[in-house]
Amino acid sequence: MKLTMQDFMQQIYWKNTVLDYFIVAGWMLLIWLLLKFFKRYLIRLLQNITSKTENKFDDQIVLAAERFVIPYAYLFINYTIITALTLSPKIEHILSAGLSVITVYYAVRLINYLLHSLVLLYMHLKNEPEERIKQLNGVLVLIKVLIWGAGFIMLLDNLGYNVTTIIAGLGVGGIAIALAAQNILSDLFSYLVIFFDKPFEIGDFIVVGNTSGVIERIGIKTSHLRSLDGQQLVMPNAELVKSTIHNYKRMERRRVVNSIGVVYQTNATQLRNLPEILKEIVTTAGATFDRAHLKSFGDFSINFEYVYYTETPDYLVYMNTVQAVNLAIFEKFEKEGIEFAYPSQTIYLSGNNQPETALPMGKG
What we know:
Layout: H1 5-9, E1 12-13, E2 16-17, H2 18-50, H3 57-82, H4 89-125, H5 130-158, H6 163-180, H7 182-197, E3 205-208, E4 211-218, E5 222-226, E6 232-236, H8 237-242, E7 245-247, E8 254-262, H9 268-284, E9 288-297, E10 302-310, H10 315-336, E11 344-348, E12 355-360
Antiparallel strand pairs: 1-2, 3-4, 3-7, 4-5, 5-6, 8-10, 9-10, 11-12
């Protein structure tokens, strides 16, 4: 007996006719062609539109749709088409479990991608330096691990496992791990404090206790400094956060406070003119004068205190200015006949009211 095409289409295999299989295959092919068309033309159209806007986040949304949403949509629609067939409970369970795995996989990847893109865009909008953006990878890795962990727990819940017991076990295990690795966790949280609070950045010159140097690297556990004598110093982040940090790179200017003493033989006119002389010297050296006062009468000198600023944190400029001011003071005093004071004592001989000699302390 000859089998007609109609009879062939009505043949039943695994509880479905051949026609059912052809219909499913046809729908899958049609959906593939539609998504191919959608990806080729509509996505390109959206990319052209978003490329003309100032907002860069819409570009990332289009890329995320192309990379994650369209592939998942294709798989999900195919799953829906296939389940229209009459399937055995075992096959249905396998397909359902596979869809759960695919759903969690694409959902976690989409969330991580959008989160990463959003944070990077925010960093660029804030004009953060490249070093800060590199440090961001350490923070994002931790966040992504947490998101993958949450996705894994959701997957187990969808597959029918008792996640309450798993979460309780993870909680107990987490406490044990935290106690065993509390120093590592302390450095890790300190890294987050350094990243978000920004007490220093790469390239800053800092002083912490008796340690000083330029920041070369900020790691998850330690930060690396290069000392002035060339040594590399590796310091735990927890110790840095606990300490008082002097960040000299963020100084807007440097303050100089100096004292100077003149002899008691200096006349009143010279004493009265001395603050103005100091002001002139400081201003000529390119610094910003603040004040100069006769501060006190010492045992061996009349003491003046003067204050000025160098309008840059650069240490070399600071020292050059201090040197210029000090040399100018010495030259001015020599010209005006003003004597610097030094510790001395005057000795009077018996029966003579005139001083015999005046020697510096420690001499003679």
